[in-house]
Design brief:
The strands form two sheets. Strands 3, 4, 5, 6, 7, 8, 9 and 10 form an eight-stranded antiparallel beta sheet that branches. A two-stranded antiparallel ribbon has the order 1-2. Strand 9 and strand 10 form a beta hairpin. It has 153 residues and is an alpha+beta fold. The chain is built from three helices and ten strands, in the order H-E-E-E-E-E-H-H-E-E-E-E-E.
Length: 153
């Protein structure tokens, strides 16, 4: 019986290590995100800031992480860098901006519906400022997705 119990604990340990080993950490412009190994990433930058784009081909979730050059209030960043951004305001409906807390920072969030890359998606956007830069996270997923347990947000 002890051998069986030891073997079961050993299998759980090996399984846990294999799950952890299947993750990768992606870093760009001071932003760091740990995601599953098979997710696709790219990063871009321009005069306004730096962007990480993440795509999970299994669920079709898409993420945009932004580090913007400038210190702006979260409400301003949400309104003028995300809601009014031509990438996100085409074929979209946005809820009202709500204040929230994110990573111990004063933040704003907003939910939305959008047609993106030809598919209907639901989304959640979050903006905050750390006193040095302003940040934005835009997450899009198929309808019915629960962002409460999202691995990126």
């Amino acid at each position: 019986m002890k051998t069986f119990r030891f073997f079961g604990i050993f299998l759980m340990f090996v399984f846990g290590l294999s799950l952890k080993a299947q993750n990768k950490t992606f870093e760009s412009a001071g932003m760091v995100v740990t995601i599953p190994e098979n997710w696709q990433t790219s990063d871009n930058g321009d005069l306004l800031g730096n962007f990480i784009i993440i795509r999970d081909s299994n669920t079709e979730n898409i993420y945009f992480l932004m580090a913007l050059n400038g210190v702006m209030q979260p409400e301003y960043t949400m309104q003028y860098s995300i809601k009014n951004n031509q990438t996100f305001n085409k074929e979209s409906e946005w809820d009202d901006i709500q204040e929230c807390q994110f990573l111990s920072y004063k933040a704003c969030q907003c939910r939305f519906n959008i047609v993106f890359w030809g598919a209907t998606r639901i989304g959640r956007a979050i903006t905050f400022c750390d006193g040095k830069k302003s940040y934005g996270i835009v997450a899009m997923a198929p309808p019915g997705y629960k962002f409460d347990t999202d691995p990126v947000i």
